Amino acid sequence: MGLIGAVTAVLVAIVAVVVYLASRGDGLDAAGGANALAEGGGLVVNPDAGNVPEVIVYEDFQCPFCGQLEQTSGPQIVEAAQEGDIKLTYIFMSFLDGASGNQSSSRAANAAVCSADAGVLPDFVLEVFEDQPQEGVGYEDEAFLEAAESAGVEGEQLEQFTTCVQEQEYQGYVQDMAERSSQDGVTSTPTITVDGEALGQQQMQQLLSDPSAFDSVLAESQ
């Protein structure tokens, strides 16, 4: 009886772990269409890129300087990824959740994963930051839906996106990205790394102020 009881306890524990993992909403299976890297490693825009520099952009959707970065250099960074000049990954942080009363940063990060499932991540990011509210005001779900529509999501795909946003299907993965950022030693946003090395303050200032600076900053970092 003792052996049977022990085996039963192990089986119950295994089932509990499986249920827990399934409920987290993270990992490659849960966010497969998003090209989500395991353990909160971020959302890859162009996973099939060849032997090119790996650029990781760490942002919080409530961060004003992140909004400035996206409006100034975001289009050129995305263009470089689309042309295969870089491998681009976004890691969205949510440390500014406390600045609003509705966990705006993590909800926006969840919506970004939903947009990646819909295949419009870069355009969605640009759209959301373009209409970024004042820090502390926070986003409403309607802003994410409008951004998705502007990025080209429609029909049944828009319905799936809406459900994903409203039910916050990727809460677990959002938390994983926050933990990954901490493990990577990222303490402020925006932060950009090229092949694992963070850009310096002067380089970031260039990207924040000059829409044509990314190519030269990338070359300097090599």
Report a brief summary of the structure.
This protein is 55% helix and 11% strand.
Describe the structure.
With 222 residues, this protein is α+β, with helices and mostly antiparallel strands. It has helices at residues 2-24, 27-30, 64-72, 74-82, 104-117, 121-130, 141-150, 155-166, 171-183, 201-209, 214-221; strands spanning 36-37, 42-44, 54-60, 87-93, 191-194, 197-198. It has a single domain, classed as Glutaredoxin (3-Layer(aba) Sandwich). It is built from 11 helices and 6 strands. A hairpin with a 4-residue loop joins strand 1 and strand 2 (42-44). Helix 3 crosses helix 6, helix 5 packs antiparallel against helix 6 and helix 7 (141-150) runs antiparallel to helix 8. Mean pLDDT is 87; it is low at 3-30.
State the main characteristics.
222 residues, Glutaredoxin, six-stranded mixed sheet, 6 strands, 11% strand
CATH superfamily: Glutaredoxin
Helix content: 40-55%
Counting structural domains, the number is: 1
- Indicate the mean pLDDT: 87
Rg, nearest Å: 19 Å
CATH C-level category: Alpha Beta
Give the CA-CA distance, first to last residue: 65 Å
Largest beta sheet, briefly? 6 strands, mixed
- Named at the architecture level, the CATH assignment is 3-Layer(aba) Sandwich
Distinct helical segment count: 11
Q: What is the string of helix and strand elements?
A: HHEEEHHEHHHHHEEHH
What's the β-strand tally? 6
Poorly predicted runs of 5 or more residues = 3-30
Q: Can you tell me the CATH topology? A: Glutaredoxin
Report strand %. 5-15%
Q: Which structural class do you get from the secondary structure elements?
A: alpha+beta
Overall geometry comes to globular
